[in-house]
Amino acid sequence: MSRTSPRTKNPLAEARDGDGPAGLLARYGCGPVKFTGNDDALYERRLVFDHVLDPADAGPRERFEAVASAIRDILSQHWVCTQREYDAKNPKQVYYLSMEFLIGRSLANNVINLALSPLVDAAAREKGLELAEILEQEPDAGLGNGGLGRLAACFIESMATMAIPAVGYGLRYDYGIFRQEIRDGSQVEQADHWLARPDPWEVQRPGETVNVPLGSRFEAHRGVITVHRGQPSHLLGIPHDRPVVGFGGRTINTLRLWQASTPDVFDFGEFSGGDFFGAVSDRILAETVSRVLYPDDSTPRGRSLRFVQEYFLVACSLADIVARFRRRGNDWSTLADKVAVQLNDTHPAMAVAELMRILLDGAKLGWDEAWDLTVRTLAYTNHTLLPEALEKWPVEMFEALIPRQLEIIYEINRRFLDTVRADHPGDDAKVARMSLVEETPSRQIRMANLAIVGTHSTNGVAAIHSQLLRTRTVADFATMFPERFSNKTNGVTPRRWLLLANPDLAALLTEAVGESWVTDLAMLRRIVPLADDSAFREKFLAAKRSAKARFVDWIKARDGVTLDPDSIFDTQIKRIHEYKRQLLNIIHVVIAYNRLRDNPSLDVSPRTYLFAGKAAPAYRLAKLIIKLINDVGSAVNRDPDMRGRLRVEFLPNYSVTLAERLIPASDVSEQISTAGYEASGTSSMKFMMNGALTVGTRDGATIEIAEEAGEENVFLFGLTAEQVAESRGWYDPRWHYEHESETRAALDLIFSGHFNRQEPRLFDPIRDALLAQGDYYLHLADLTSYAAAQARVCELYADRGAWGRKAIINVGSSGKFSSDRTIAEYAASIWKAVPVPIS
Ligand code: 26V
Asked: pLDDT of 780-807, one tens digit each?
């Protein structure tokens, strides 16, 4: 594989050789303002000048803001220098367009990537600051639903670390993914006003505001938009930039988030007429566009506001991209040589029509040249095969809001279908399938078709996913444009997910192989031989034990729950979805519970089953699954016979911060989706790096995890994707219920009302899904083989040495799953972008 190698020189080493705080600070001066090294009062100055506070009186929140602002001061010059270098060198630029960036907290990550940990630790000691308390003050920036959004965040970090000139573009939602509370076992959504207090990382740049013309005026009421046609209006996009710190602190790229506003700040006419509300309401309506993240990760709902959000992201970002391109003096004909735009799913796929509009109407290019540039500039990543998650937008929405872009889409479609007809005369069914416009039951634009036709690259996110995409989901397109399709297996950043999240394991790895693994994760292969070294195994298991102890303390403080660090931590964390099969997990827990009740002397390794994840607010069955997990947990945890043997906890409000603490503490990683449905899964990779063993189906990235680690080091079970497809015709879940005594006993117990005596019929919809409606996700088909895999887990855990050996092999085999590797592949084969190191 040709790859863009990330920087191997390790700045931590430099930092250690260097000269303490003064030397460290001096490294961050690169422009006209030099840090003198005597500048160790940054923190106090921030308190006095930003907050007008005596440092002695500062509360935890002010202390956080002051520390974060001081760190931003330190990185600011390198941020400026990075941009100056890009402007001077005019390299090919990558733009990553995503409706979601699940960033999490930034302070600790920025400190680590800037190699400032020694400085910050020393300063905290000297000033008597409690760092852990300060870090807990930062809100978790939850501008995403799940895997797709977190992937975007890992990618921009990797691009910065690898010195690739890149900008991430997204929306600055006032409200991120909802905060999940659990009341009486059920999910309750609370608004996440993460920007309630000033965010020290963001820099507002009103001078670079973008104007977005719209074909209609619209009014939003409770997420539903009323359109007033024929009354053109416009929105303003105000950029808010966040630094994206590459490891080593030299490259500081930008994440630019757009806030929607209106040009008519205040209508003085209306105001003096006494209509104060009318005067400000336009602004309020406009600002609803970036008010809140859509919390559904599969079914498009509340659709019209989402449509405006998607166009708003595309219009602002492309205007900005084109402005940068022209500012650097480039000719239109070189657009695809200077710009690569990656579309994160179809959410920004209107970029195809918008870029065409800019090139046709703005640059006055002819159709053929505009089309050639558009296709060569844009690339598309698909993240799901679920048909209900494939976006389609009603033609009326385009007509009302962006009629010119609709006209362009029709012309793209006319030309495209002409070639399809020419290649397949008389095949009307094929033409109907491939059309960008779905005719029945109502006219809609198929965004995946638009994205494939209007870009030069379509990729899936794991080998099996890319294969199924090509052969099933969009087979007609893969036949027509075979050269456009490829696989780019996802990855995660080892800085956040190992170096930062798991300090003890990170230190052990550095002791074993040196520091280079941080930017070259394949180096971890070198620990594989140490799996047979009992002294190393002991150190490795001690690191796991300390991560578990840290998590036990943290969750005790957060939720008041007491966990036993000597039990197996068996963890399933992800959005709650039928295809991800949290239900399979909890039914198996009930089987384990029955076994222990029937046979109190059974010798098992004590196990704690941990769940966390959010359900889309309108997804009834997913919410019922949460309730079931909690109700089973209450019964099991209060049963004295289960004490020290079996425990079940649903940890509320899954977030990046919770993941950072729980993953290092986990022994078992549950990746149990119905084969063929999980595009990739990325938590699996974080677990693997942190020494958890995977229990999983042959789905998504699990297949590649097993390839890297060896099948004997993974607990695989269940039907393959082919078997799932093949069984669709004849599968009958009732057969399993009737012929498998443990399956029946577990289901009978659940549906008898044993776990919810007040509402014994509560779980009937789950019973119906499993037994009456055919169990679409094949829970019962995989249950016995899942239970067998879990029995192997139990047995292996009893042999400490054997367990440690497999865990070490997994960590040592996780190199492929660094997002640096993924980004190197995108850069080399899709973007043709090369690193521009900042001196
Ligand atoms: C769809 C929609 C529909 C409209 C409302 C908002 C919304 C938000 C997200 C989505 C698509 C979700 C697709 C997704 O998250 N896919 C996940 O992508 C991960 C990164 O590639 C991958 O690891 C997961 O397997 C895949 O489920």
From this structure: 999 999 999 999 999 999 999 999 999 9
